[in-house]
């Protein structure tokens, strides 16, 4: 198991290096001058040259890449051109919103989806099953910004249980922070939970047709015991894959929801970086997100091996 | 004492079982024989109360005076695994892959008795040792994927007998296993019945298997028991025509002409095939597995050669190499003096065709038969104008009507699909057809028909066959020469009758000894 984890970690580190090369190449090497791009069409040549110096664009490719990488490893992501503050400060600030929001949404969607999928599979073909399948279909189809606005209308405008947007910061207290994140988390969790519930249902149905379930029944286990003791763990494997993908998406893909609720998250930071041509921010954030995706992939791999002993020996 | 009394079953209105009655005595083996779809497995599931949805039964399933068919699922749960144990055909998939074998055997004890977990694990260890998996070699913490098929079937048996059931139901327990493993599992079952004094209901399609183990036999056809009785008496007398038909089909000898003494066609010289295994270390060299190790033999045109060996011996790898689908790491394979490799030209490939075990798996389900059968024609420089006529001719040769061309593979039975696969192999008029377990999945009566068809085609068209099978009795009826393969090497080869009558290599002797046969003395009465 330890060996498996180490091998996976090593191969994912390799992916990380390859990804950093690709990002570096796309942003810095490919034709077009980043400094000129950042300053726009009408920039004075002197200003561009000054910015080039500022950004360290006049060094060799290798030294630029190395200083970028070593900088990031020591927590130095460079200084944002538009905000004039270190990118690491910006990221740290935004992560305080995005990471709890992503986790909140993920916990919500998982705790709803797994039991719902299980019930639908157990009552296959019943009214309950059709009801669940219909609801989840709707959950996938409804655009989440529209659902988010609906939540605002009902719970903020009419019922006044929550505020319509904004984030008070964790200094205002954990409960206040969580309260501000509740509506966005629900809006994010709805489509995710709908997908996850459907995956859970079909995975469980497939598992229930396996020969070892028949063996379990022949041993004297009831239908319910066979499901919980033998089918559930096997059915979790595809579900874990989806959970991993969803978390990566939630971390940066919440941009629309962040906008609806005026949340200062990572998604908005990237979006602002792109529109303001702040390549230092974009480059560092993309790398950071790649890193996050790879860490999540690693965790999912470890979870696979924990669930399925067949994977532990292969590496 | 278990008895079925006038058991009938229908599923969603389709009749499956019709008035099935038999008794099983303690300490005895009851063999239930029939072809696929005859209702033998459904009989077992009816006893267990594990019938699929939509099943309606009438009649009684008596266990010590109580009628199981009247019980609710809850009460049946207390009987299954406790008083009735069951094992199934596919040991590879019958165990939960994420639980250890110890946990799975102990579970039987834990759900039926008030045993502590530690005590259950201790009994599980004893039971596993009893079925031939001692703790020093197979600790409780092993997972199913670390065991072979035969070992997994032993785990299933340990699970089923953990609580000394009165009845053990074994549904085709050895069909998926190699012949030597089959012999060991049958021995184990026989010993358990004698020791534990339980009844064994052995369900199989193989008359030879029941003849060697069962005390009583019932023959089933389309949901009815057509004949039953004490084993030797039943085999000697065979009052029902269907029993006789099954019996004759199982030992069927197709009419074959002597092979022409022709020139060599296929030569295999010192063939070596290595597979790369998954890397152990990220940058270390990939370890290799030698699947075929220095194999040499020659085949003449018009000859029929058998290649026998147990699963994993390298038969299929050798086949793919002969077809030129995989490169060799040593030696060579020549067809008419030209090398067969992945780079071989189409005109040479057209002279060799193949039929696989599962025709359904080797057909694209969305293609019509005419397209399926015509597919090898792409090996020709251009598709001939008269391709439809050629397809019709091929289908006619395998005994299918021309209107089959417009239909899809799922519309045919297993035997008919195998005929379509043969038609596909015939369309290019090849010199050699490789039959890779081509009749292994078929019922005995269908198998006899396909063997006749193959013999007739060979006599008429002068085809050569390379007949790959794990079933020695079939190889004996259809081949002139036989090659015995073990662990990538050919350990014995010679004329089929000579090898079977006087095997030289120990391995061949073991294989032949392990093959179940109906005693010759029983056959004499039939033919007399």
What is the terminal-to-terminal distance of chain A?
10 Å
From the 3D coordinates, which CATH architecture of one domain in chain A would you assign? Orthogonal Bundle
Query: Largest interface, per-chain counts?
Result: A-B, 27 and 33 residues
CATH superfamily of one domain in chain A: MetI-like
Question: What percentage of residues of chain A falls in helices of 4 or more residues?
Answer: over 70%
Concise account of the structure shown:
The complex is a heterodimer of chains A (315) and B (528). Chain A is mainly α. Helix content of chain A is 78%, strand content 0%.
Structural overview:
The complex is a heterodimer of chains A (315) and B (528). Chain A is mostly helical. Chain A has a domain at 97-313: Orthogonal Bundle (MetI-like fold), CATH 1.10.3720. Chain A has helices at 2-29, 34-39, 45-55, 61-73, 87-122, 127-141, 144-158, 174-208, 211-218, 223-253, 255-260, 266-275, 279-307, 310-313. The longest helix of chain A has 36 residues, at 87-122. Chain A is globular. The model of chain A has no long low-confidence stretch (mean pLDDT 85). With 528 residues, chain B is α/β, with parallel strands linked by helices. In chain B, the strands form four sheets. A six-stranded mixed sheet of chain B has the order 6-7-8-3-9-10, with helices on both faces. Chain B is globular. Classes of the chains: A mainly alpha (315), B alpha/beta (528).
Task: Provide tags for this entry.
heterodimer; A: 315 residues; mainly alpha; MetI-like fold; B: 528 residues; alpha/beta; 6-stranded mixed beta sheet; 19 helices; 20 strands
Write the layout of secondary structure elements.
The complex is a heterodimer of chains A (315) and B (528).
Chain A: H1 2-29, H2 34-39, H3 45-55, H4 61-73, H5 87-122, H6 127-141, H7 144-158, H8 174-208, H9 211-218, H10 223-253, H11 255-260, H12 266-275, H13 279-307, H14 310-313
Chain B: E1 2-11, E2 14-24, E3 29-34, H1 40-48, E4 55-63, E5 66-67, H2 73-79, E6 84-87, H3 101-112, H4 117-130, H5 149-161, E7 167-171, H6 179-196, E8 199-204, H7 207-213, E9 216-221, E10 224-230, H8 231-237, H9 241-250, E11 264-276, E12 288-300, E13 304-308, H10 315-322, E14 330-335, E15 338-339, H11 346-349, E16 352-355, H12 369-374, H13 387-397, H14 414-426, E17 432-436, H15 444-461, E18 464-469, H16 472-478, E19 481-486, E20 489-495, H17 496-501, H18 506-514, H19 520-527
Parallel strand pairs in B: 3-8, 3-9, 6-7, 7-8, 13-18, 13-19, 16-17, 17-18
Antiparallel strand pairs in B: 1-2, 1-4, 4-5, 9-10, 11-12, 11-14, 14-15, 19-20
Helix pairs in contact in B: 3-4, 3-5, 4-5, 5-6, 6-18, 8-19, 9-15, 13-14
